[in-house]
Amino acid sequence: MVRDAQQAATDNGAQVVSAKVNRGVKVCDILPTGLGVKDWTGTVVTISDELGGDDAILKVELAEGIQIDADDGIFDTGIKPGTDIYQQVANLKEGQSVRFSGKFKEDETYCIAENSTMEENGLRTPLFGFKFESVR
After folding, report:
1. How far apart, in whole angstroms, are the C-alpha atoms of residue 40 and residue 27?
2. Burial class (CB in 10 A: 0-12, 13-18, 19+), 22
3. Measured between alpha carbons, how far is 79 from 86 in angstroms, rounded to an integer?
4. What is the tens place of the pLDDT at every residue in 38-75?
5. What is the rounded CA–CA span in Å between residue 57 and residue 52?
6. Which of 16, 87, 106, 134 is deepest in the core (most CB within 10 A)?
7. Phi, psi (rounded to 5 degrees) for 107
């Protein structure tokens, strides 16, 4: 369903939004109620700290061009220092395969929140907001 949306014909902004809405409907149909997932796998793209802060920002690629991130910006999902999950993230390396659990950030229009700043990027290379509960 995400791959289908990535390949959708989009000649204008309304088509991009329509494709994202359709993707959201399909995503909500397959994700459990509450948008939580357990023991999914991915690859660490980046681990950084919040600009001017201590929260960890973790970005994981689920499949080529499809990523999730813990980002303390707009969605306030950064990983707080002193927590068990922070210690798990501190030991990761970029390019490492990981198994993780957590919850997608909800969005009323698109089912799950997407963090790209441009609509077209959010369709072609989505970066979904995610709150990590465990990473190993």
Report:
1. 15
2. middle
3. 6
4. 999 999 999 987 666 788 889 999 999 999 998 655 55
5. 12
6. 16
7. -140, 130
